Structures are given as C-alpha cells and as structure tokens.
Amino acid sequence: MGLFGQKTKSVVGIDVSGSSVKAVELRGVSGRPQLVTYGFVDQTTEIVKSDAASAQVEAVRLIREVIKRARIVTTKAVAALPSFSVFSSVISLPEMSKKDLVSAVRWEAKKFVPMPLEEMILDWEVVEDRIKKKSVSEQKTEESKEPAPVTHRKDIRILLTAAPKALVERYVTIFKQAELQLIGLETEAFALERSLVGNDPSPVMVVDIGSRVTSIMIFQESIPILTRSIDMGGESITETIMKALNVDASRAEQFKRDFGLSMGQGSNEKIPKTIEFVTNSIINEIRYVLNIFRSQSEKPLDKIILSGGSAFLVSLPEYVSKVFQVKVFIGDPWARVSYPVDLKSVLQEIGPRLSVSIGLAMRDIV
How far is CA 184 from the centre of its chain? Predict the structure, then answer.
C-alpha cells in the first residue's frame, strides 16, 4: 500500500547510482505533485560503467526489489543518466532557418563531444526566456526535433545534450526487463534543477554529494550552464576516517554523521580534520567551477544548494559558506510536493539523497 490509498495516474522516478537504487512515486493533484510512496536499496550497481551481462541482471534485480519494497504500482518510470556520462553545452548561433539549424547544431556538437556523433544521441532545444526541459530519448534524434520558432533575434541560444547510444540502449533494456515503461530518460542535472531550483532565474550552484561521485552544476534561468563531476563522495570520507582512526566502516560512518566538520565539545579533533582534508577536494572543484562561471558571467552567484546523502554532514553548509562567502543551504526537494505532515521529519532527513528521484517523478507533473 502506498502512503495514500486512492488510486490515480502516477509516475515513479528511479535513480540508479553506483551504490544504490532510489525510487519516488508522485502523482499530480490539481497541478501539484503529491507523494504516493518511496523506497531505496543500498547496494552497489555498475550499469553505467559496465556493460557486462551480470551487471545488467543485478540492476534489474535491484530495481524490482525497490519497486516491491516501496509497493509501487505504476509501471510508468522516468530515469536519469549520471551527469558524468552526458555531455552538455549552451551554444549560440546566428538566426537561421530550421533546416540550416539542424546542420549547424550537429556541426557545433563535433567541437565539444569527445566521441563520434554516430555513437551518440543528440538532444537539443532552442532556449527562449526559459528552457523547456526535455528528455534524452532513445526514440528521437536531433533530425526529428522541431525547435521553437525564433523571431527578431540576431542570435539564438541552444541547449545541446549528447548521450552515448550504448548507455541509453542499456537503460532501455534494463527497465524493459524490470517490467517498467520508460517514458523519459534525462540527465541528473535536469532532475536536480526541477526539484531544488525551480523557477529561480538567478545563478545557483547545486553540489550533489553522492556516495562515490560529487556533481557540481551551475544553473541560470533554469539552464545548466556548467556541469562537472569528480570521483569523490561520502564513501571517500568514511574510508579516510577508517584509516585515520583504525576503525571499521560502521563506526567510521557513525563518526562522520555525529561530528562532521564540527569541533564541538566532546568531539575527537582528529575526525573533523580528517573530513576537512577529504572535503577539500570537493572545495577545490567548487572553486574551479566558480572561477569559470565568474570569468564568463557578469552576474554574481546567488547561492549554493547542497544535495546528496552527505549534504547533512555536520557544519558543512557553514564551512562552504565561509570559504566562498556565498549563502549555502541544504536543498529541500519536497518543497513543491504535498505529503502527510506526520512524515515531515523522516522525509526531511532523507530528502537530499532522493533529490534526483523526486525531480524525475516531477517531470510530467509540473
């Protein structure tokens, strides 16, 4: 049984990461997303980096398991490709006919996509005042797109996204074997923008700290203008504490959650220093992305939003804010979702790690 008993049309957003599978089912009620149910399974998955049959079988098993645990009934699913596996760029082109635009976009794509275009699926959209976010679809190529008409403009901006065909096909196969109808496949950046940024037109950075990978994105007018990822996350912090204090994984994880970067009374001074050493890799990457943004934009960064399972690391928002002199918040992906009030404390605690799943499920509702 879901959290609400009434049956109605709904969509499940499924986030398959390197260490877990997370699912959130939402339905639209008067144009607002309403929580139906959610669930997650913490177990290693390798479907992004491995095309082995065993990895595919395991991914199918985990998706089925999370669907069963959460008692999800709908078969309509939206999934996300990891940011590090997709290439995105905002390009500017002179105003031209639709036919010429198709060729021009493909030509520009060759400049930033480090793989043969024959091996990629291109998805592009003309950017007006705000982007209308669309998915990377296994059924549509850039030749079938009908970009919005452009009038009275010298230049037009295009949001261009390229995903490996082999990876897209792998996802399609996995979800089919899991007996789900994959109605949308998009990038994590779009999902995070939808659940954490919303209609905010100001420049916003989202730092999504997962178990293995941290993705750093800057959005402006809902457009992901900069995206970078590093192989550093919550597991890296836990492993460093294990080595520094010679403790097992469960105890190191508890130390991480209890103390974080805090030097409060009763804390082991070595723990915050150890965590700070690891998080500096993330800090340096944030600094790099921020410097690129500042060199290209006259507008200042408005704020930084933290997401992912390690967003609640004690004193992390204060630490990042102090380093960059920017407002830093822990993202609330439930802000535009209706849910039972008695679940608020639980949902707020797990919200950051479900941000991608929530954004995916919101795709056809908001």
Answer: 14
CB 213 within 8 A of CB 233: yes
pLDDT tens track for 204-252:
999 999 888 899 999 998 888 899 999 888 888 889 888 888 889 888 8
| Secondary-structure percent of the chain, ordered helix, strand, coil, rounded to 5 | 40, 25, 35
* Cα distance between residue 23 and residue 15, in whole Å: 6
What distance in Å separates the CA atoms of residue 85 and residue 18, rounded to the nearest whole number?
Answer: 13
Per the CB < 8 A criterion, the answer to whether 204 and 293 are in contact is no
- Residues ≥6 apart with Cβ < 8 Å to 315: 260, 261, 262, 272
Domains of the chain: 10-83+167-198+331-362 (3.30.420.40), 84-163 (3.30.1490.300), 227-329 (3.30.420.40)
C-alpha–C-alpha distance, residues 215 and 96, integer Å? 35
Query: What is the pTM assigned to this prediction?
Result: 0.85
Residue that has been written with the tokens 């939808």 in this structure: 194
* Residue 185 token pair: 């496949």
Q: Structure tokens of 209?
A: 């700290």
